[in-house]
Input
Amino acid sequence: MTQTKAYAAQSATTPMAPWTLERRDPKPHDVQIDILYCGVCHSDLHTVRNEWDGTIYPAVPGHEIVGRVTKVGSHVKKFKEGDLAAIGCLVDSCRECDNCKEGLEQYCLNGFVGTYNGQEKDGSGVTYGGYSKQILAHEDFVLTISDKLPLEGVAPLLCAGITTYSPLKHWKIGKGHKVGILGLGGLGHMGVKLAVSFGAEVTMLSHSPSKEADAKRLGAHKFVLTSDKEQAKAVHDYFDFILDTVSAPHDYNNYLHMLKTDGVMTCVGAPPEPSQVAAFNLIFKRRTLAGSLIGGLPETQEMLDYCAEHNIVSDVEVIDIKDINESYERMLKGDVRYRFVIDMATL
Ligand code: NAP
Ligand code: ZN
Ligand code: ZN
Output
């Protein structure tokens, strides 16, 4: 076992603080990584505060991980010491079910192993994420990244990037589509960049008037302040596709109205509380309400390669790990432009 410095929450109500955890020694297929940067996802906050229930303490979040390979097991083919590498939201799955065989490990029928707050398949315990100096995983769950892009901007692609890329691809979004991205945060800003790059007409749907200029800078063609009744009315029956990235409870009905006939709204934002949906908002205009979870390993690699080719990275504010608690408070206020990323040299 190796001792690794980390930041952990000891309970739902205690702040994140230094902690030391133990990682296994690399197994034959393991790739061990020294973490350089780790993005801060709103799911980290939902988890450490137990907003979704089921958090196991101490909890070490972080699933937007980039770093350098320091050791590989004897059977590893994909990586060698010194390579850049990344780990996203998954570190294992059964690899045998129909979904795993299709590369949809996030929908593993026997349960995937999350990078944090997961249970190792071999019974060795709980998984700890990227708010730590070092991590390791089976090579099948380690991704290749380009050395051409700034690493701190690449880190958020591992969750915010793939979580928005996957539904846009699934619903075949491209030229001729009118797309609304609801919520301009970590996921939302990647949704805008990716949907624009696929050729769609993109409208930012935000409850923050201060974000209008940024939305345009990120490539959005239009901006709608969702709290302004007139502006919201102007996009009724308008969109082919809405990607809902909002983290807090909100009324889906307000946005379903904005879909045109056969339009689709996909939820990726995961508020802890359920929301009521009026059947009539789906029945009229034959609308679809859907969901999507991160992405599988092949699609995550495809997204990383696509972003490298098209020079797409996240807009980040690099933080010192000691400022993580303050960053959570700022994230709750919507005061992040547009992803906090921890410089792991500060741990
Ligand atoms: P974030 O950076 O905090 O962004 C959330 C955005 O939601 C905010 O910037 C804000 O945008 C909007 N918002 C916040 N409170 C709101 C409110 N009360 N009413 C309306 N809009 C509000 O969070 P994130 O990291 O992008 O994550 C977003 C959500 O996706 C979280 O629930 C997270 O757990 C979930 N998630 C899901 C997956 C998945 O696989 N499905 C993966 C990762 C994350 P405006 O200021 O523009 O309105
Ligand atoms: Zn995430
Ligand atoms: Zn499986």
In short: Residues 41-43, 46, 159-160, 163, 183-188, 206-208, 211, 245-248, 250, 268-270, 292-294, 331, 334, 336 surround NAP (ligand 1) (CB under 6 Å).
